[in-house]
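Re: the 262-residue chain
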Amino acid sequence: MVLSLTLIGYGEAGRTFARAAGWEHQARVFDAKTDAPQTRAAMLADYDADGVTLCENPGDAVDASGIILSLVTADQALVAAKNAAQHVATGALFFDMNSVAPDTKRQAAKLIDAAGGRYVDVAVMAPVDPARLAVPLLLSGLFAEDGATALAAIGFSNVHVVAGDVGRASSIKMIRSIMVKGQEALTAEMMLAARTAGVVDEVLGSLGEGWREKADYNLERMKTHGMRRAAEMEEVAKTLSALGIEPLMTNGTIIRQREMAA
């Protein structure tokens, strides 16, 4: 097997990692947005600027690759695993770095492992920018230790293995997101009400020092990434339901995140 690196998905995370690590022509990239007329030109410009190698289909990207990073939107995570499983090389490490429910990760793991690959559940625990390759990563599953070694070899510096099967790392990420993304949604609701009532300064002042900056940051994240966050929170809702917990607050977060992005 020829060792090479594949990125499935080349959005904010994929591009941030590739540029920070200087992977350039070592990395092959497939992103479905390249097929869409409205986004193809921008995607091609990104590939050219970063020096990565464009692949027009998942098979060309994954074939004979030793390290595969899946960095797609939550709704495409299982699709990416299904496509990769048709071409994954024996022994290749498949890093599922997507923000999806543990059950979704377990479904993906079955596909990759049955095809001869080695599936690793990866939870990305902070925004990739500005942390870049120092972003905290949690790994779980049978091949987590091997995965940690491989990720360190390609430049990641904050990798931690958590004991347990596939799904444990994602459980930590999903449950944590209830608070992180929920706080953003509460901030948006508070600010919408405060602006309508004309009491923004008074409300923020009553919360203590630094709250204006916190509010600005939370609103910016929602406006920029709200659609992706809403998709992630739908996976959080699945996680809660699988645990027998009704996702009352999370369902509200989904709505508010999507509204702010729109």
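The longest helix spans residues 211-242.
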